[in-house]
User: Fold this.
Amino acid sequence: MKNSRLMSVIVTLCFLCLSFSSMGQKNTAFLPGEELTFKVSYSFLNAAEAKMVVAPSISTVNNRPTYKMDVFGSTLGVFKLFKVNDNWGSYIDTAKMIPHRSYRHIEEGSYRKHEQVYFDHLQKNAHVKLFDRENKEVVSTKDYAVPTNVQDIVSGFYYLRTMDLSKLKKGETILLTGFFDKEIYNLKMVFQGKEKVDTPIGTFNTFKLSPIIPKNKLFRGEQPVTVWVSDDQNKIPLKIKAKLMVGSLDMELMEVKGLRNN
Assistant:
């Protein structure tokens, strides 16, 4: 990879491709205390580890009970030279599965970014606060108009897991909408059918999904990313493959803890 930020951007985009749906229902897929650990490989090299964690206790934000969700990413092996240590997080309404607050703490080499986003779903507003390198002082604030019940990069992933994917037909396209990095994203995800896959934690029947990503300088082709989600009540992401302009990226689930449905 050219630099440490590229690794983080690619990992972020892979989670982004899972996010932002409008077909959610009551959560029966996960509980507080769940942990998912992924290995991220770049062209056959172990490049990073990603961990998705649901805090063991319920938090309160805007007088609403919320799940505290965190995604952690750090480099491995020779990629440790880039010193990536990132954390994305979100407080998600336990009933409506929408974010009330999200945050990003990015540490990549000498680069730092600390950001918090406060969502007002009634006013259709996202209030963004940017902090200094030490994450102590607010350096800028800005408001953005957002759609009703908009998702963020972390909440959208978990919201996807509340969907009844069994109703999808092969070739059907789902419109995905969310707010990330000061922009509204409108993406399409294509259901590619069902497929059995082998993973380090076992063999699973899966739903195979491919987001249609706008032309950019990172990915090759119209549908460069493929996601396999378990065809069971947990609906956990098992594998993600991405075709890059240079090389390829693979994410694979290596360890699970605290699954709701066994």
Observations:
- The chain has one domain: 4-254.
- The first strand starts at residue 35 and ends at 42.
- Residues 4-254 form one domain.
- DSSP finds two helices and 15 strands in the chain.
